[in-house]
Amino acid sequence: MRTVRRSALIDRPAPEPSALPRRAPLPAHHPEPVLDVVVPVHNEETDLESCVRRLHAHLGETFPYAFRITIADNASTDATPRIAARLAAELPGTDWFRLTEKGRGRALHTAWSRSRAPVLAYLDVDLSTDLAALLPLVAPLISGHSDIAIGTRLARGSQVVRGPKREIISRCYNGLLRSTLAVGFSDAQCGFKAVRRDVAERLLPLVEDREWFFDTELLVIAERAGLRIHEVPVDWVDDPDSRVHILSTALADLRGMARLGRALAGGRLPLAALRRSGGDLDGELPAGLARQVVRFAAVGAASTLCYLLLYTLLRPATGAQAANALALLASAIANTAANRRLTFGVRGRDGALRHQLKGLAAFAVGLALTSGSLAVLHHAAPAAGRRVELVTLIAANLAATLLRFLLFRAWVFPARRTTGPVSP
Prior knowledge:
By secondary structure, the protein is α/β, with parallel strands linked by helices. The chain has helices at 48-62, 80-90, 104-114, 134-142, 164-181, 197-203, 214-224, 246-265, 284-318, 320-343, 352-380, 386-412, and strands at residues 2-4, 35-41, 67-74, 94-99, 119-123, 148-152, 159-161, 192-196, 229-233, 235-237. The chain has an 8-stranded mixed beta sheet, with helices on both faces. A two-stranded parallel ribbon has the order 7-10. The longest helix has 35 residues, at 284-318.
């Protein structure tokens, strides 16, 4: 039994990380365990043994490489340490250690920092996630295709059984992440994740949280650094005996979002140094952004001409405000459809209605700006002519277009570094 005390967990200033090398597949005959699956536990004497035995049997039957299971006991006060020690003695490839402080993030940070396996994973002890998704989770990391893999309960293909309260909380949390930190991944808190060790070695010194926000912080930093995140739809059944205190966890998560947002806005995280050198993402982000700006501008120019034509035709019959609203609505629908396909490369009918509804929300911002500018103009200069109106509307539309592009990129069509299953 190894006990890791607080003195061993004191954060030290991390050196500036070097760029990650290009991803490469792991060799077919790896001399040591390829996968280290961590099971963080706190007072889990009821579920621990059945979980670990079931996990060990599953890996022995389905995983084609050597593996290790690490039980990370964080300050349990029941029989959990004794059960963990017995399992480690009985099951080959099973280890355990004990921390003197609570915190799932603390347990994962410690376990992943000390492991030498090239692929690191963790899952919740209640086994809410079907273990059939474990091989698809780690396969793209073993093959060198991706840097991080996460299970998602919110993607098409996931089968989820849980109460409405937890469903609403989960969707609100992930929606808040998308709106505040502009993330592209769909499910930050599913207890089913894996990461390549070379990536973890760079990311862990940057992750401050040691509790429930640990997962989210690691994913946000990884995504902002341009690392590839693979998502796996999972079958998931809610554990009615969950120990998570929703209110205190939610408040801690909000504080974590605020702290991380300030760090990102202030440029305090060395994101550029985390990108792959010579890899498939070199130059991709600036080039992709440039292409999107050009295509969005072209679509916007066409939409603006359509808008001005409609406004000119409708103005005599409906008045300025009604003509502005109707013309902007029609051009906004066409604009969202064109940008969906041409600017952001989304094809097919899946999500089209959702994209249009979000596009209309962005349209509402444009309507407020343009209608507000007309109201200010008519109040300041009641005798202003049609040309002045058009100039005012063009200026307001330019401001609305910039804001709409930011909303489209971060919220309506967020970039997702996700792919389908990859076999090792």
